[in-house]
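queue> pop job 88
queue> type: inverse folding (structure -> sequence)
queue> payload:
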């Protein structure tokens, strides 16, 4: 998905594209937000990018809601990439002058949704119910390491300035709703749910160890009285417009009123 920038008010951050001398590569320079402005960067996978939704993805919806609540100018830089895993996101943040590095450096608010694709190689094993033993132990070990490094990199890029970091979990790391019921046996659906809960636990633990806020998406989706299928795109794997709107509202509720972050824990 090509990163998109949504301007929600005038007089906001100026994005300038320049060509790197000798290399032919483009480098994006981003001015820091001015007093009273809020700059949001959304980092993550296809959920963040809005795959298969044909709608405004949750980062843009969140920006609109935040602007309405605060009355201040808000910009949203949605850098979600379909198929991205935690290793790939870390590489983006570590790459000098990458869009992720540039946008994160200037962001007051960071939305982070990552981890589901770390288990993609075991999709069939899990959803078929054949994932015997701990077939994803190595992936979880790497996810824990990557999440800590991603958060540390965000702090470094922000020069430890106050930053609101909102880390979402998942309602399911694989398909859910009617699609899952048609394609997978009960044992596979149970295994997928268990993997999701474990993934969310890892994300929440990473948030607690830092100054980030864990945002629970699982409960709102799974407890949806109208059936979770009504929140999903036809592929059963991504949110539809209603699902994205729900995520945006949950993120807004988790956002501090004054957008001030506590000092980074642990130094």
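queue> result:
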């Amino acid at each position: 998905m090509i990163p998109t920038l949504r301007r929600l008010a005038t007089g906001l951050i100026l994005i300038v594209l320049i060509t790197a001398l000798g290399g032919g590569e483009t480098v994006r320079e981003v001015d820091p937000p001015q007093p009273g402005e809020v700059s949001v960067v959304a980092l993550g996978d296809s959920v963040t990018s809005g795959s298969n939704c044909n709608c405004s993805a949750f980062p843009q919806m969140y920006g609109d809601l935040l602007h309405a609540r605060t009355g201040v100018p808000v910009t949203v830089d949605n850098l979600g990439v379909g198929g991205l895993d935690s290793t790939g996101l870390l590489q983006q943040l570590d790459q000098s002058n990458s869009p992720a590095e540039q946008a994160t450096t200037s962001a007051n608010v960071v939305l982070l949704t990552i981890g589901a694709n770390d288990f993609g190689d075991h999709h069939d094993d899990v959803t078929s119910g054949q994932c015997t033993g701990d077939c994803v132990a190595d992936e979880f070990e790497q996810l824990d390491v990557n999440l800590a490094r991603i958060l540390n990199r965000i702090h470094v890029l922000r020069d430890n300035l106050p930053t609101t970091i909102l880390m979402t979990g998942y309602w399911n790391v694989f398909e859910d709703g009617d699609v899952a019921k048609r394609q997978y046996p009960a044992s596979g659906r149970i295994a997928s749910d268990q993997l999701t809960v474990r993934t969310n636990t890892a994300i929440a633990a990473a948030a607690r160890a830092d100054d980030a806020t864990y945002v629970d998406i699982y409960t709102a989706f799974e407890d949806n009285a109208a059936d979770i299928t009504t929140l999903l795109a036809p592929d059963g794997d991504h949110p539809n417009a209603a699902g994205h709107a729900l995520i945006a509202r949950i993120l807004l509720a988790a956002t501090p009123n004054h957008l001030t972050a506590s000092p980074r824990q642990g130094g």
